[in-house]
Amino acid sequence: MTIGVLALQGDFDAHRxxxxxxxxxxxxxxxxxxxxxxxxxxxxxxxxxxxxxxLDGACFRKLNDFVHSKPTFGTCAGAIMxxxxxxxxxQPGLDAIDITIRRNAYGRQIDSTIVEGATTLGGDxxxxxxxxxPRIERVGEGIEVLARRDGDPVLVRQGSVMVATFHPELSSxxxxxxEFLKLVKNGK
Length: 188
Ligand code: GLN
Prior knowledge:
Layout: E1 2-6, H1 12-21, E2 25-29, E3 40-43, H2 48-54, H3 57-67, E4 72-75, H4 77-82, E5 83-87, E6 97-102, E7 113-117, E8 126-130, E9 135-139, E10 144-149, E11 152-158, E12 161-164, H5 175-185
Bound molecules: glutamine (GLN).
Residues 45-48, 76-77, 80, 103-104, 131-132, 134 line the site of glutamine (GLN).
């Protein structure tokens, strides 16, 4: 099982370490042809406007095809990239998952925080690291909510696409990445 981590910008290396810890083969994806050799993709946190600037035509097309056909996991800015609708300000989303997401909705960098929330993944509440996080304002039909923060969905899934508005790669808990690897294994 080979997982690609989009490595244009942001905290891709923390995802690489976590996925390797869980036994996955990981490639850092920077070129369009690399999308052909991976079974799943992680779109990491960073700055979504910067991702959009850095993605050249060929890479953007490959990314767009991939997220509509194969398992993909987006965190924070990576979640913003995958959303149907993006607000504050309005910007294009890849429409891989039927959510509306509002950027920087919990305040500025200084308002970044660590909270615990209940999860349907089983076991203890999940530690969740929020860094200039977006807020999921609307979930479409058929979206599964896997964790919440004060009522807000923060980890959601639709088919083979999963997104988190927090950074599971920065906590020692491996459940979220393990859940994604399960999705890839099931080939959904
Ligand atoms: N604020 C960033 C954005 O809007 C996301 C922050 C993050 O990925 N930690 O793209």
